[in-house]
Amino acid sequence: MVRRKPPEGPAGREDREHRTDEGRAHKELDDDEDECGERELLRPNCARLKNQIVAAADGRPIDEERGDEQRRDGDEEDGLDEQLDHAGASLDSPRVEQYVVSSDARHVDRDLVWRFLHDESYWAAGVPRDVMDRAIDGSLCFAVFDGDPTRRAAQVAFARVVTDRATFGWICDVFVVPEHRGRGAGKTLMDAVMAHPDMQGLRNILLATRDAHGLYARYGFAPLAEPARWMAIRRPYRP
Prior knowledge:
Layout: H1 10-57, H2 68-73, H3 80-90, E1 100-102, H4 110-119, H5 129-137, E2 140-145, E3 155-163, E4 168-176, H6 185-195, E5 204-207, H7 213-217
Parallel strand pairs: 4-5
Antiparallel strand pairs: 1-2, 2-3, 3-4
Helix pairs in contact: 1-3, 4-5
């Protein structure tokens, strides 16, 4: 025998609709919290990378820049690399490398810079070591590291700027080691160069390139409007 449910009165319908609306509201709230969680994950990562650049420029170990609260929570959080991997996946982008930029010339791997420019560059082939040392000493230098330079991380890119810090800047000796090309090191380097305080307000910023016009165009560089007005003296390196 089949029993029929008694007709549902107005009070029963209101109670059932209330429970349905309440369940829907809880689900929407949970979804919002998930989305907010993904967004919040990206913010501390960006802040950490910014602090790494500042700390490296001051010659301090990266860990000294982490606040007390971050140190307390450090054991509960994922490692920096793992968090950056997750952030990159959330943005549907390639893996974000843990690059750190330093404008402290003491961090520059002079052996690496000299060997690359001497052996592999087309613009400074054969440059003597003492000449390169003097060039580094007299320039605003930028070195990109695959990690913390104060902990012997490998240098992967370099650039230097010859500037009076008032009107003129010449960007030169820019390179990325082959193993890190196509992974964002070049963009990280140029972002740091163009954002440096000494580069702000310069009337003329120049560089020369044979094959990287597309990269530099993103930062506002364009071919000389009147190249015939420019002249130069070109001398070979002296032994």
